[in-house]
Specification:
The protein is α/β, with parallel strands linked by helices and 188 residues long. It has four helices and seven strands, in the order αβαβαββαβββ. Helices cover 23% and strands 25% of the residues. The radius of gyration is 15 Å and the shape is globular.
Length: 188
């Protein structure tokens, strides 16, 4: 797995040895960035963006954002094996000054309250079996973490039937193999 585009293009992304972390596949990742860059339904750019990467794993999405010109990425991850690799990936790509890792369980009540500022892009890649996506979206909306023209991107299993908050507006929903990507915002 490598960085697809930008200043870090071609840099290798280290992966954990166990199978508990499901890194974002390159084809899916490239499709996400193509939609961000070319869809007339979205009004957000990666360049100069403030990005929040939830369930960040080894950092594939956030590091791709940094490579493509994002100003800053906040990673939230609590699985020890993934955290070790995430830190190595950030260091190997010299991105320590452009990123921060919050080593906490996203479901702890105060985790999202630790965040400073608002985000242009919020990426959520929870485990496929995770059922509490609604709780996180409600907290994002309650804390007003998404900027006005921002986008929330959610990576899920294509058969998962998630319930989203009333204030979450789905803009784009695309399937890729066994996964689906939902683009939305809280401007409904």
């Amino acid at each position: 797995m490598r960085i697809i585009s930008g200043d870090l293009k071609g840099k290798k992304i280290l992966l954990p040895s166990d199978k508990l972390t499901r890194p974002l596949k390159d084809l899916t990742k490239e499709s996400i960035f193509n939609i961000i860059n070319h869809s007339k339904l979205l009004d957000v750019k990666v360049e100069k963006a403030n990005v929040l990467d939830l369930f960040s794993g080894v950092g594939s999405f956030g590091l791709e954002c940094l490579s493509r010109g994002a100003l800053f990425v906040t990673f939230i991850e609590n699985y020890k094996e993934a955290l070790t690799i995430l830190k190595k990936n950030i260091n190997n790509m010299s991105q320590q000054n452009f990123s921060k890792i919050i080593e906490r369980d996203i479901f702890l009540e105060n985790t999202l309250k630790l965040l400073n500022g608002r985000f242009d892009i919020i990426f959520m890649d929870p485990p496929y079996k995770e059922k509490k996506v609604l709780n996180i979206l409600n907290t994002i909306i309650k804390l007003n973490l998404l900027k006005e023209n921002g986008v929330i991107i959610i990576h899920r299993h294509r058969k998962e039937e998630d319930i989203f908050p009333e204030k979450f507006k789905t803009i784009i929903n695309k399937n890729y193999g066994i996964s689906k990507i939902i683009f939305g915002n809280n401007l409904a």
